[in-house]
Amino acid sequence: MEKIKQNKLIYIMFSFTSLINFLVFWLDPQSYMYLVISLIFFLNACVFFINSREPDGTYWRRWDTIREKGKWFFSVVYGSLITGLVFSVILYVVIRDYLPFLIVCCLAGGWVWGYIMWMLNEKRYNVSKK
User: Are 34 and 25 in contact (CB under 8 A)?
Assistant: First the structure.
């Protein structure tokens, strides 16, 4: 199996596992370990999503325009504002408590996620451009 198809399959498996763990957490909100496992699988799915993109595909052409705005813009907008706020809403629906704490944690976690995704995208972009 070629590497890109293999990465797409692994991406789907990690996404599915992340979703299952999150659903278990939703059914039993006291078991936070399932939430942690879900977030770990989500981050792994993101990594394999990046690695499953064709080297000359539209994803990398779009990345050219995104990377011009810079690392901090990407981390704040795509990480904190988009990913962090989405996770805040999802977790608030499940937990129904601690809204200020959830927002702060998810915005900070979203920024970290955005920074990590920037670094991984840049690494993959530079390898594909060589």
Answer: yes
8 A C-beta contact, residue 12 and residue 42: no
Q: Is 130 exposed, middle or buried (0-12, 13-18, 19+ CB in 10 A)?
A: exposed
Residues 6+ apart with CB under 8 A from 57: none
Alpha-carbon span 30 to 6, nearest angstrom: 35
CA distance 82 to 75: 10
Q: What is the pLDDT of residues 61-108, one digit of tens each?
A: 888 888 899 999 989 988 888 888 888 887 777 777 777 887 888 888
Nearest to 78 by CA among 114, 106, 42, 102: 114
Beta-carbon count within 10 A of 113 CB? 23
**The model's pTM:** 0.72
